[in-house]
Design a protein that fits this description.
- Among the domains are: 21-74; 78-131, no CATH class.
- The protein is an all-alpha fold.
- The longest helix has 37 residues, at 8-44.
- It contains two helices and no strands.
- InterPro entries: PE-PGRS_N, PGRS_rpt, PPE_sf.
C-alpha cells in the first residue's frame, strides 16, 4: 500500500523552486568566471614572474655595490663594461675588481674603429671596433690580470695596434701578454700594427708580460 501523495499543485511549486535555484547557480557561475580566469592566468605565469622579480633584486643589489665606484671612478666595481653603440664609439671599462671591457663599435666609412674598454683585475679587454673602409682599425682594449690584449683589425686601412697586457696587481703575479698587432694588407696601407706592450709584474715576485707580436 503506497503512502506517497502526488498533488499536482505541490509538484508545480517544487518545479518552480528548482528552476529558481538553477538560475541562481548559473548567475553565480557567470559572476565568478572573470575573477577565477584571471587567477588561473596569473598562476600559469607565476614562474616567469618569480624569475623577473629575482632578476630585479639581483640588479638592484649590483647597482648598490657599484654606485660608489661609479661616482668616484666612473666605472663599476663588478660587472662588464657597456659596448659602444654609436659608429666609432669606445667600449666601456669593466669592473675594477672583475669584469670584461666593452667592445668598441665599428667605424663608419673613413672613420677609425674605437678601442675596446679596459678590463678589471680579472677579465678580458674589450674587442676593438673594426675600422671603416679606408680608415685605421681601433686598438684592442687592455687585458686584465694575466689576460692577453685583443687583436687589432682593419678594413681597407692600416691595422690597429694590439692591446696592452694586464698588469699584475699586488706583490706577486705575472703580467699579461700584449695583444698581437693587426697585419697590413693593402698596397696603399701596407704597414702592420704594433704589438701591445706586456703587463708589469708583481712588486716582489713574478714575470713581466711578453710584448705582443707585430702584425
Amino acid at each position: 500500500m503506497s503512502y506517497v501523495i502526488a498533488a499536482p499543485e505541490m509538484l508545480a511549486a517544487a518545479a518552480t523552486d528548482l528552476a529558481s535555484i538553477g538560475s541562481a547557480i548559473s548567475a553565480a557561475n557567470t559572476a565568478a568566471a572573470g575573477s577565477t580566469t584571471s587567477v588561473l592566468t596569473a598562476g600559469a605565469g607565476a614562474g616567469s614572474y618569480a624569475s623577473a622579480e629575482a632578476a630585479n633584486v639581483q640588479q638592484a643589489v649590483l647597482d648598490a655595490i657599484n654606485a660608489p665606484t661609479q661616482i668616484l671612478f666612473s666605472r663599476p666595481l663588478i660587472g662588464d663594461g657597456t659596448n659602444g653603440t654609436t659608429p666609432g664609439g669606445a667600449g666601456g671599462a669593466g669592473g675594477i675588481l672583475w669584469g670584461h671591457g666593452g667592445n668598441g663599435a665599428a667605424g663608419a666609412a673613413g672613420q677609425a674603429g674605437s678601442a675596446g674598454g679596459p678590463a678589471g683585475l680579472l677579465g678580458n679587454g674589450g674587442t676593438r671596433g673594426t675600422g671603416g673602409v679606408g680608415a685605421v682599425g681601433g686598438n684592442g682594449g687592455a687585458g686584465g690580470v694575466g689576460r692577453p690584449g685583443s687583436t687589432g683589425v682593419r678594413i681597407g686601412g692600416p691595422r690597429g695596434s694590439g692591446g696592452a697586457g694586464g698588469n699584475a696587481v699586488g706583490l706577486i703575479g705575472n703580467g699579461g701578454a700584449g695583444g698581437a698587432g693587426g697585419s697590413g694588407g693593402t698596397p696603399e696601407n701596407p704597414a702592420d700594427g704594433a704589438g701591445g706592450t706586456g703587463g708589469s709584474r708583481g712588486l716582489l715576485l713574478g714575470d713581466p708580460g711578453t710584448p705582443g707580436p707585430n702584425g
